[in-house]
Task: structure prediction
Amino acid sequence: MNCKSTETVAQVSKPALPSAVGCYRGRAVSPASEPAEREPREQARKPVHPSQYCYGRQAIQQTRRPVLRNALASAIALLLFVALGASAAPHVNITIPTNASPRVVFAAERLGLALQAAGLQGTVGQAPSTNGPSIRFRQRTDLRQDLGHEGFRLESSNNILTITAAADSGLLYGAVDAARRIREERRLPQSINVADTPAMALRGVCVAMQKTSILPGRRVYEYPYTPELFPWFYDKQLWSEYLDVLVENRMNSLYLWNGHPFASLVRLKEYPEAVEVPDDVFEKNVEMFRWLTTECDKRGIWLVQMFYNIFLPKPLAEKHGVPTQLSAPTPLSSDYTRKSIAEFVKQYPNVGLMVCLGEALQGTTNQISWATSTILPGVLDGMKAAGLREQPPVVIRTHAMNPEAIMPACFAVYTNLFTETKYNGESLTTYEPRGKAAQTHLNMAALGSHIVNVHILSNLEPFRYGAQEFIRKSILASRDRFGASGLHLYPLAYWNWPNSPDATTPPLKQWDRDWMWFEAWARYAWNPDVNLNQDRAYWISRLTAFLGTRQAAEKMLDAVNEAGEVAPQLVRRFGITEGNRQTLSLGMTLDQLVNPKRYNAITELWESQAPPGERLDEFVRKEWSKEAHIGETPVSVIEAVLKHASNAVVFAAAAAPHVTENQAEFKRWRNDFACILAMAQNYEHKTKAAAHVLRYGFSKDMADMNAAGEHMTRSLERFRELTALTRNTYQFANSMQTGHRKIPFGGAANGAGTNYHWVQVLPLYEKELADFRVALAELKDPARATSTTAVQPWPAAPFRLISTNAETYEVKAGARPFVDRRYTFMSVASELNGLTGIRFSHEEAKNHRHVPIEFEVTQPVRVLIGYFQNERDLWLQVPNLDFASHADERGGVEPVLRNAGEIEECPAFNVHAFRYEPGRHQLELIGKGSFIVLGVVPQSATLEKRDAKLGTK
Ligand code: SER
Result:
């Protein structure tokens, strides 16, 4: 295996920003039509815009004087810099207001650099020059109604370019726009008169303060801020580079995602042990956080810190003998969290907070109480301590909770709230979202300002993505179908920030490699209502700058748009989930395609995150019964993705002879197109194999199974090709490599992952084909079947039951699995026969009352739990990893024995095995409802997976 092998490469050089062909929604305005100052219209629950909050009054007032000194120092530096660089060049005066904020100074600096790039000379000053070309900043608060905080107007005549805006951000974006025009035209824009405002108020990106694997001794999402874990976090030059990319793309928010950041960023006198980083690291963190806030502020970017709930710092949890992640509030966790949040708001008053009320925290009642009695009061405490006059904006994610029940309760105690919901779950699947998920967005948008979160891109990883048409339509869907007014964009390889997954030395930075990804989302979040011809011309100009010629650019644009359809269509039609427990590019097993329900397939994937259509089983059934098909079908999708993927390869080949710049990166793009084609072909044959297996269920015709075998062979050939294409070019297929990933194959239970590269999973697919061939031979000739040995019972591990509300029993036909029901086992799988189970009150469990089951073991064991296969509320449900990432920490999310017995009056049940180490434990199962305990076995025992086929009738 060579998945870490690297290729030494030239870095990706981005096209010089920009060649703005029809780039903005410029509209002519008449200078005479300036409106008189009006009071802004009152709107129900309209939150204070973060840019208003965090860069407006208090922050700026506090820093105005030193900033002005900095402004002048900067201006002088710029003057020298520009003058030295281009002393003989025509000179342009850039005039900033005397009370210019750092943001306006920064804007002036960018103009100076643009002038220099255009071969001109610029000086920044505060007195308007009386002669010669000049650029003037003009702040007009009376234009706020028309231009908002971020809109601007550019007017030029007689060699004077005036940038007018109601607020600093507008002046900044005016300068960014003007700088583009200056670079493009290589002079001051002449006779223009345009105004522009953004379509979406919040346009942001996120950065993972998280890693590809779980840290030893830690749980999911627990990553303290330290230089060892996040060296890049302390690299100011790197940050400046990325922040400049953001401002160039007119992004105005940056979210840092972490489980529990407070233990790295604040000290509480009541909980000194809560800080989980050394003193020197803590000081560095504070310094970096303040620096980052200031640098963001300068660029009109609102910094937001995200956190999960309920998390406790490890040292605090250890001191109190409690877990670091809690499913329900406790007095300790509430007091500590409220104080942490208050201190955070006090220490970093201009940093926003984003709250994820799940995944550890479970249950609507708990989540409402936690939000309204701990988190939001914490923010209010901090607001008071910091002397803030307005509520700081707080963003609440709707992930892993019931937002319709919870958000109104939050609004009742706090008004300046934003809601945020995933766009297509944790993938990019469609620009025609609908169903329940769409309704949630609409419900949230009705409550207040709502943000769409383009979350982890599980189906796009690890390849490049530049399909601007798909992205444009997705932004339109976000605004028009969901009512969103904000975008929160993930990078393409979230957990591996800041590096891309390519096997290159040095690593590629994601913002360099994925410049088209960031730019397209940002561009359309600013304005999705573009003229399509002008828009195409814009992208051709951008790609011309990137690849060197227009011929190459035109073909490349077509290639990226074609390639961008493949992964979305495949996952929405055949996938198990849009969640990050599936990695699309690693393929799927035959069983996952034939029996997706066994893998906890989530219906939302095709009912909300896809246009109407049919899944494989429905399609095959309708074919068999000759019913008409509806919408997108497996056949139509396979046809479409093959066409799109081959077109991408053909267009890229046509571009190749014309590429004169960025050859190495173009080669990598081409390899990605080839990978996407091989992936589409792998899915073509695998889904055809699955369709034949499903058809065999009706036809009982061996020809179907033979055809399935042929397609299995061909799908493996295509997977081999995909492996060859990625062996030396990628470090991994997906950046999340923990045991959380299950589809197609599980990652490691803990720590560093496995099965994250095609090279690693190829042998598993080879085995799958070999097993299929054996099964097929046995089907044709049952006499060849070798597995005649009887299934043996699993060995029992001794345990001591401590709880008095439960009792042990022998698992066998005739035994009763509950203490308060007469139901008996009518049959039981051989594996379970004779094991010692634990029984308790079905009545208590089914009514969601806590049934504490405490036990002690002296060796590592697995506890066997029976989950009934029925979705009614009385039965405990297998936890869904898409909403509870920690659910598989003890293993057990996947069944080891399906249909393992028959119990009177009860549905069929599957057995799941949860690991416990020696010691005293309370059985921890996520969720509520009734279940059965079927025994305790040593961890060393091999539990052969099987379908016992009992109780299914
Ligand atoms: N599923 C997790 C979340 O939504 C991690 O992406 O927060």
